[in-house]
Every structure is written in C-alpha cells, then in structure tokens.
Design goal:
Length: 162
C-alpha cells in the first residue's frame, strides 16, 4: 500500500511538471525612474532642480513608483557624455544603500549621492561622489531569482551634474 502511494505521488508530481508551463524566461520589464529636470539640470517652468550640489555631494529629485514584488533598489551611473551614461554596462553602476522607504506612492522623492551624506534623502543614499561636468542616470534594480544576477531597468533620463 505504501509503495502504491509513492508511485501515485510521483505520477502526480510528473503531471504537474508536464502541465504547469505558464512561465516565461523573458526579462522582466520595469519602468525606469525619471530625474526631474531637463538635461541642463534645472527647469524654469517648475523651479525644481533635478540635481543639486550640496556641501558634501548631490541631491537628486526623482519621480518614481515601484510596487513590483521583485523591486530591490536603485543603481546610479555617471559618464562624460549623455550617450555614454545611457549605454553603460548595467553592472557598472553603484547601488544605493538601504531604502529609507518603499516608493509606492506617486510623489517626488529625494536621493543623495555622497560618501559623507547630509541625511537629506527620503528614499536612499548612493555611496559615491558624482563628478561635476559628467552626466548621471539611474536604473531600477530588481530580484531576478536565486543564483541569478539581479536585473536592471532601462536607464532614466540623463542629467548634467553641476
């Protein structure tokens, strides 16, 4: 009788494997965030500076809403030109530290980029000093599976670092 139950369990397991094929290996598409400013770094119509220099680094203001279950955080990139920052290898950026809050409300959030942060950010801090005259872009990082490298979204808009 025990042997019969074992065989039945194996048969059920094999049937489940055979008929449970509603999965995909396609990359997960997650919307990138938007740094709130034109390329010049500030907007005359909204008076919002998307990126602003502080005494110890930079403040970035972003529009973002990430409610995906696989959401992990953000990664910042910098390069000498707008084209280069948009096309950098997804693994070359710097991840932000611990999230201060989960960005699930559509509002303006602040991020700080500094090795000596002031504590102004309400979303997260990137432990890197940005280079004035370069361009910055941010990507969303998401969990891709156990033993698999984290995924990243497409890049945000690129802004000039003052």
């Amino acid at each position: 009788m025990k042997n019969c139950f074992k065989k039945l369990n194996i048969l059920i397991f094999l049937l489940i494997l055979n008929y449970c094929n509603n999965y995909s290996t396609r990359p997960l598409s997650i919307n990138p965030l938007i740094i709130l400013s034109p390329i010049s770094g500030s907007s005359s119509t909204t008076q919002i500076q998307g990126i602003e220099r502080t005494s110890t680094g930079h403040i970035l203001r972003v529009a973002v809403q990430n409610v995906e279950l696989t959401f992990k955080g953000y990664r910042i990139f910098q390069a000498p030109t707008e084209e280069q920052v948009q096309n950098l290898n997804p693994n070359r950026g710097i991840n932000c530290g611990n999230l201060i809050q989960i960005p699930n409300v559509p509002t303006i959030y602040t991020m700080e980029s500094s090795t000596n942060p002031l504590g102004i950010a309400n979303l997260c801090v990137f432990p890197v000093d940005l280079i004035s005259g370069y361009y910055a872009s941010i990507r969303v990082v998401y969990f891709n599976g156990i033993g698999v490298e984290d995924g990243v979204s497409s890049p945000s808009n690129a802004v000039f670092i003052p």
